[in-house]
Amino acid sequence: MKLPAHAEPSERIWRWVYLTICSCIFMFLVIPVLIVIPLSFNAEPYFSFTHKMLALDPEGYSFRWYELLVKFGMAQPDAPFGIEWLADMWSNSTWFNAAKNSILVGVCSTILATILGTLAALGLVRDEMPYKRFVTAILLAPMIIPVVIIATGLFFFYSNPCGIVGFECGRLTSTFTGLVLAHTALGVPFVVITVKATLTGFDSSLARAAASLGASPIRTFFKVIMPLILPGIISGALFAFATSFDEVVTVLFVGGPQQITIPRQMWGGLREQVSPAILAAATLLILVSVALLATVEVLRRRSERLRGLRP
Amino acid sequence: MAALLEVTTADGRPLRVALDAARGRARLRAMALVAPLLIFIVITFVVPIGQVLFRSINNEGFAQTAPNLTAWFDANPTNVAPDETAYTALAADLELMRRNRTAGAAGTRINDVLPGSRSLFTSSARAAADFAAPFKDAVLAKDARWADPRVWHAMRTASNRYSLDYYIIAADRQRDADGRIVSVPPERRLYVGLFAKTLWQSAFITLLCLALAFPIAHLIATVRQSTANLLLILVLLPFWTSLLVRTSSWIVLLQGQGVVNNVLVAMGLIDTDHRLKLIYNNVGTIIVMTHVLLPFIVLPLYSVMRMINPAYVRAARSLGASSWTAFRRVYLPLTLPGVAAGSLLVFILAVGYYITPALVGGADGQLISNMIQYHLGASNWSLAAALAFILLAGVIVLYWIYDRLVGVDKLKLG
């Protein structure tokens, strides 16, 4: 947006002031995310730039915190690299185990959330669906209701999940199942929203055309509807995965020592003594989020092109 | 006449009936698609929240540990002063507590509403085997505090299956000797102030977010599409970055030996002995929460501003309005839907925030969510549940307003 040639000097000055303010706000948004990347390569155990780092001296930088990240918790971190070392890392490295847990819980809850959420979105966009507004509000509530309240409820519910129907069965506290169910509930609203948004631009005459040519509803779904709304489904799934991958409150409330995920591990680190190893973990997580963000953006554009919203 | 006009389908059924049947089937199909998720959400979300409500009002524990007293309370109305039969029941229950080792649990329940009375139960239960008739004198000889009518009021409400005791505590109230609900002494008032602080601070953070989001949303909405996409990435990057990553970055930036303080010292703005305390206090909570919640208001503002036709402002200018007047009278009112949607969303999210205050809030930056977690961790489950339910009720009202105003499924996710 350029100013017209007849702009007054005061307007030109204001324009510069405005752009400066905006740059500051953008810096406020981005710098806190990016600052950890160079600091994670710090050769010293400090949280600030050393003189060597500022002078771009290679000696000021090192991979030691990444090494610590891998080796922390291992039985023999300094043993020669080989099968045994890898086995040691696979089963003992604290952060590696946290990553395994995070991925396991994330993938399971994402699959569950994507299937349930996509089906529900398909139903919710139909005109015949009764109580649409109320049902939508219920299904999307886990996104808005504070996680602390949900986690408190799960804390009570998981201690005796069959209690509501009047008999005793095992508890879900400190189990993977419990955590996966909780993360599914927290991630499913994102799937519903993105798939619903994709479906609102969907031309329903395509489905009718398939039906008139003799395709069964299931065949119509997989051959016609699904390919067109797939970008929306994948975006929703990525949102759900990101939600689970970043979730710490339910892990704190209903998870046990066997369910330490990456955010839980970071939480522990931040509560006790902040070590630069946390910054190394943070840097890796930033790479994950950049990859997720890029995928979702690409998918969004592809979806808009597919639906003819954009040339 | 009617029969003549009745349109039928090919197989002879009246069209109206066939159509109704088809509509009914379509309705069932739509419901069947939604049903699995609805059932799942009811089980993993609605039921647990129902349990929060149940825990906050349920206190069957005391009735089980003190059955004789409960029977006496049931038989005698509120205004009856405890007589010999009441003390007989009390002595029997204390003896029961001694044998079942439940005096601690019962004492804790009464202690919640009447601080300092836990020891009354535990010490009296230890001596319960020696009590002999007349029980009133025996019990009072052991501990004169049993004559306090407040103890009896507390035990009476606790013996009900359901009571609002924990809501009374959450409102910083207690029952006096006559059973009336009065404020607790100022030094013990905790929760009302904390709720007020949570609301006040969330409102402040919302205003801060709005002030920061407005200029950049306007910039993104008015530049070329390719530049706008680039700038949007800058907003979405923190949005997608793990909350714990962002919190750790802020700890690194703001702590005493952190980047911000070091830069300020290097610039000579502050003395190295007077580094600013920017984290582990309320300031830290406000800064980090503003950063975390900012994208949630930029996105709805941007999507509203993008739709505002620039010709409106140009028209206002050509009719003689100054740029400020054109902005204030034409542009600003058009952005109000975005302002309302974004602010409300940020406020709702801020009210229930837990992670950031817990990590960077220190002692004075804690919010109501942290108090809920604290009581849950300390096994004061009923109080945690009552506080959680009050917070929930507030959020549901805000959620309802948000749904009416914006439509929750219109939420912008980038």
From TrEMBL, chain A:
CDD domains assigned to the protein according to its UniProt record, in alphabetical order: TM_PBP2 (cd06261)
Transmembrane residue ranges: 16-41, 103-125, 137-158, 178-199, 220-242, 277-299
Keyword set includes Cell membrane: yes
GO cellular component, one term: plasma membrane
Family: Belongs to the binding-protein-dependent transport system permease family.
Database matches in SUPFAM superfamilies: MetI-like
Tagged with keyword Transmembrane: yes
Species name: Ensifer adhaerens
Tree of life domain: Bacteria
Ranges in coiled-coil conformation: none
Domain ABC transmembrane type-1: 99-296
GO BP term (any one): transmembrane transport
Protein name: Polyamine ABC transporter permease
Primary localization class, coarse: membrane
Key words, A-Z: Cell inner membrane, Cell membrane, Membrane, Transmembrane, Transmembrane helix, Transport
A Pfam family annotated for this UniProt entry: BPD_transp_1
PANTHER family, alphabetized: INNER MEMBRANE ABC TRANSPORTER PERMEASE PROTEIN YDCV
Recorded topology in the membrane: Multi-pass membrane protein
Localization annotation: Cell inner membrane; Cell membrane
TrEMBL record, chain B:
GO biological process, one term: transmembrane transport
Keywords: Cell membrane, Membrane, Transmembrane, Transmembrane helix, Transport
InterPro entries: MetI-like (IPR000515), MetI-like_sf (IPR035906)
CDD domains per the UniProt record, alphabetical: TM_PBP2
GO CC annotation: plasma membrane
Location of the ABC transmembrane type-1 domain: 195-402
Membrane topology label: Multi-pass membrane protein
UniProt keyword annotation of Secreted present: no
Pfam families tied to this protein: BPD_transp_1 (PF00528)
Transmembrane domains' residue ranges: 33-54, 198-221, 227-245, 282-304, 330-355, 381-402
Alphabetized Gene3D superfamilies for the sequence: MetI-like
Subcellular location(s) of the protein: Cell membrane
Main location: membrane
Keyword Glycosyltransferase tagged: no
Family membership noted in the UniProt record: Belongs to the binding-protein-dependent transport system permease family. CysTW subfamily.
Protein name, per record: ABC transporter permease
